[in-house]
């Protein structure tokens, strides 16, 4: 859904009001930004800042997958609190994702930046590729740029 596509005469304030109502109802929204050319898509939440949590972002996923991943991780954060840099989620022997603190959230999360300004903080949900390799491993497929440093304690793993 594209708010301005569906509402061509809407103003920025109309959009912000729409976000406020949607966030009040559901706790957060997921914004998707399609990639252009070789650049991958970016998806991120808006609304978690209101609950004292960082916003979430993911890159290189389909819209549907991004919504599923970010909604699941957002609910997990609401239940358990802010994750530490390097927090990993596993299913048995399979890494599901790793959390990386985003160093310049204001640059990548435009709608959240307009809403929260300097209060904006974000973490990236980094996931393995279809062969189980993370962006830090040789041979990882490069559809997922990472926008922050890996936790120091994980660098040599």
In short:
The protein has 157 residues and is of the alpha+beta class. It has helices at 3-6, 12-26, 63-80, 105-108, 110-116; strands at 29-33, 42-46, 55-59, 88-91, 94-101, 122-126.
Tags for this model:
157 residues; alpha+beta; six-stranded mixed beta sheet; 6 strands; 31% helix; 20% strand; globular
Question: Overview of this structure, please?
Answer:
31% of the residues lie in helices and 20% in strands. The mean pLDDT is 91. Strand 1 and strand 2 form a beta hairpin. The protein is α+β, with helices and mostly antiparallel strands.
Please provide the ordered H/E string of secondary-structure elements. Answer: HHEEEHEEHHE
How many angstroms does the end-to-end distance come to? 40 Å
Strand tally is 6
- How large, in whole angstroms, is the Cα Rg? 16 Å
Query: What percentage of amino acids are in beta strands?
Result: 15-25%
Count of structural domains: 1
Structural class: alpha+beta
Name the overall outline: globular
DSSP helix fraction: 25-40%
Unreliable stretches (pLDDT < 50, length at least 5) are none
Largest sheet descriptor: 6 strands, mixed
Query: Please, how many helices?
Result: 5
- Spatial strand sequence of the major β-sheet: 1-2-3-6-5-4
Q: Mean of the pLDDT scores?
A: 91
């Amino acid at each position: 859904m594209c708010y301005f596509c569906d509402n061509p005469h809407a103003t920025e304030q109309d959009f912000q009001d729409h976000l406020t109502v949607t966030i009040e109802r559901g706790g957060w929204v997921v914004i998707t930004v399609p990639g252009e050319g070789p650049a991958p898509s970016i998806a991120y939440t808006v609304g978690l800042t209101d609950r004292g949590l960082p916003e979430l972002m993911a890159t290189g996923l389909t819209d549907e997958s991004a919504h599923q991943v970010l909604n699941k991780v957002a609910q997990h954060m609401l239940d358990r609190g802010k994750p530490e840099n390097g927090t990993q989620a596993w299913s048995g022997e399979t890494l599901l994702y790793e959390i990386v603190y985003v160093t310049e959230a204001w640059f990548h999360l435009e709608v959240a930046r307009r809403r929260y300004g300097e209060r904006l903080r974000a973490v990236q949900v980094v996931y393995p590729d279809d062969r189980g390799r993370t962006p830090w491993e040789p041979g990882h497929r490069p559809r997922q740029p990472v926008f922050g440093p890996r936790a120091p304690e994980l660098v040599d793993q």
